[in-house]
Design a protein that fits this description.
Strand content: 25-35%
Keywords: Hydrolase, Magnesium, Manganese, Metal-binding
Structural class: alpha+beta
Order of helices and strands: EHHEHEEEHEEHEHEHEEEHEE
Organism: Corallococcus coralloides (strain ATCC 25202 / DSM 2259 / NBRC 100086 / M2)
Number of helices: 8
Largest sheet: 6 strands, mixed
Oligomer: single chain
Radius of gyration: 17 Å
Cofactor: Mg(2+); Mn(2+)
Number of strands: 14
GO molecular function: DNA binding; DNA-(apurinic or apyrimidinic site) endonuclease activity; double-stranded DNA 3'-5' DNA exonuclease activity; metal ion binding; phosphoric diester hydrolase activity
Family: Belongs to the DNA repair enzymes AP/ExoA family.
């Protein structure tokens, strides 16, 4: 089975660029989207409920902002969407979906930049990381099968962006953000892509400035993290830079279907 994560930078926008044809060919069983930027009633019917897919959307209170969506071949056994933190829940950033023994967390982690790119949202971003970490601490400790996927808005190591030296003071690669990512890894979470791929040059986000994506001057900020119990079923992890339509590309993991049983 395949689990895919994609920051679509506006679901209505990417729908016009071929989202449904991509979905039909992606060979996916579960697809988590971030930055949907629409309430469910604003989505075209064919996107809101495609044939043979179960869907669920969480919108931010602020119009046209944030939001996550889940497409799955089967209805989740359980689905929740809150961290019990009103200021974070208001931004529509999370879905916790359980399919049998596998829990998939679809997350759109905050950017640390404020309105004027002044780094003012970094404390909020780090608090989000920490609250989610605490929420998942028991499942990790209890050896449960959990995947956390989405736009983490952080490049973890130098190898995860094309120009690390120039971006050390940029949100997304600042020491305090990377240290929080380190904490997840030290606790036992596994970066599935790095587990299978040690080489550089693999990115999931590119600036929309002309020529940047063509030159592959990018950042890897989209991840699928796995508990060790879930990693035992992961056969492959991929980044899909050939898929266009957003400033991000999809990332995925292929798992043994026995992960559900």
């Amino acid at each position: 089975m395949r689990v895919v994560s994609w920051n679509v930078n506006g679901l209505r926008s990417i729908h016009r660029k071929g989202f449904l044809p991509w979905l039909s060919k992606a060979r996916a069983d579960i697809v988590g989207l971030q930055e949907v930027r629409a309430r469910v009633e604003q989505l075209p019917a064919e996107v809101r409920a495609p044939r043979r897919w179960k869907t669920h959307f969480v919108a931010a209170e602020r119009p046209g902002y944030s939001g996550v969506g889940l497409f799955s071949r089967h209805e989740p056994d359980d689905l929740t969407t809150t961290l019990d933190a009103p200021e974070m829940d208001a931004e529509g950033r999370l879905q916790f979906a359980r399919f049998g023994k596998l829990t998939v967390v679809n997350g759109y982690f905050p950017n640390g930049n404020g309105k004027d790119r002044d780094l003012s949202r970094i404390p909020f971003k780090l608090d989000f990381y920490r609250r989610l970490f605490a929420r998942l601490e028991k499942p990790l400790r209890d050896n449960q099968r959990v995947l956390v996927m989405g736009d983490f808005n952080t490049a973890h190591q130098d190898i995860d962006l094309a120009r690390p030296r120039e971006n050390r003071e940029t949100s997304g690669f600042r020491p305090e953000e990377r240290a929080e990512f380190d904490r997840w890894i030290r606790a036992g979470w596994v970066d599935t892509f790095r587990h299978f791929n040690a080489a550089g040059g693999h990115y999931s986000w590119w600036s929309q400035r002309a020529g940047v994506r063509e030159k592959n001057i990018g950042w890897r900020i989209d991840y699928v993290l796995a508990t060790p119990a879930a990693l035992a079923f992961v056969k492959k992890a991929s980044v899909h830079p050939d898929v266009h339509g957003s400033d991000h590309c999809p990332v995925s993991v292929d798992l043994d279907p026995a992960v559900l049983a």
